[in-house]
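Weekly modeling sync, notes
Attendees: S.R. (lead), two postdocs, one rotation student

Agenda item 3: backlog of single-chain predictions. S.R. asked that every request posted to the team notebook include the full sequence so nobody has to chase files. The rotation student volunteered to paste the first one in as an example of the format we agreed on. Action items at the bottom.

Example entry:
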Amino acid sequence: MTRLETDVVVVGGGAAGLLCAMTAGARGLRVLVLEGSNRVGKKILMSGGGRCNFTNTGTGPDNYLSANPHFVKSALARYTPWHFLELVERHRIAWHEKELGQLFCDDSSKLVVRMLLDECAQAGVRVETQAAIGTVGVGDDGRFELDCRLGRVQATRLVVASGGLSIPSLGASGFGYRLAEQYGHAVLPTRAGLVPLTLSGKHQERMDGLAGVAFPVEARCNGQAFRNAMLVTHRGVSGPAILQISSYWQPGDELRIDLLPGHDVDALLAGWRHDRPDAELRTLLAEVLPRRFAQRLTEVWLPSRPMRQYSAPQLREAATLLRDWPLVASGTEGYRTAEVTLGGIDTREVSSTTFESRRVPGLHFIGEVLDVTGWLGGYNFQWAWASAHAAGSAF
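Predicted structure, as returned to the notebook:
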């Protein structure tokens, strides 16, 4: 069997793996990246509609979910969105801010992958695709030994940047979790995050025929609230507001939607009754909501009649429903369409400074494989960059 010796092996050629590799390589270390699929950076390529929402200028610890919420602070403080933006500008990649601090490429996400590969090449990093790993062990000399199509690879450091379970069509697998458990690490339960919600039974029937309708809402669940667009789909609901709240929702949890965020709904209804007493509620709601949705709302939840026929208590009830519309979801679309994986390797057994295992010297975990999940809007890429830089600087 062919033997290959190197200083660092990085498992996974995604955002975290490539930035860690180039960081370590730039410090003079021999680095080998092993990517199991046929190309690196697949999630980068498909993100942001092909334009890669590569960071968010508002990134802070509060934008992440973890059982150990303090874990993210050190890495995020040491490698900020401005550090990555400097790299982007150095490679003359044009960018723009879309909304809420989200930064995108003007052109193609391919430029971000090319930038990372160019940095790796400059640092002497070797990148191999279709290099799925068989067994992993530790030799008598304390070095890691991995079997893959290159033969047996030996390294002083092993960095696991293999991601989570989301979007298996891009090559996602549970390799990182299995490896962590092999060495005694706890893996917290995983589930799909930033994912569309599904409806069933009468709740789906009530939304039948509304697929494609989208409008701004505020989605609330378990003390969290996100204001952005909601999209009705054939299976349930999606859109940024729903994707965001999905990370905080689990089956059985109460989910409420403000259908008219930013409006004083009581004043709106009272004004309609005063100024347009003969107009039907259905007609007036169609001026502030999509017509099809307003129609369905007044068929199922709010009986429509001329405004002068509503009593003050009835208007208050209508306002409450518009502010606090109940959405009863049955589940999610799962890992197939989820942008991230919630849960993962318990961070209490990993150094927040070096990302080294507290159980196995030389073993590091970075990126999505850890129990750290960011909001929608560039936060997960920033976690990839920050955790990767911290580990790559620590060897």
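Discussion: group reviewed the output briefly. The mean pLDDT is 97.
Action items: rotation student to repeat for the remaining queue; S.R. to check formatting next week.
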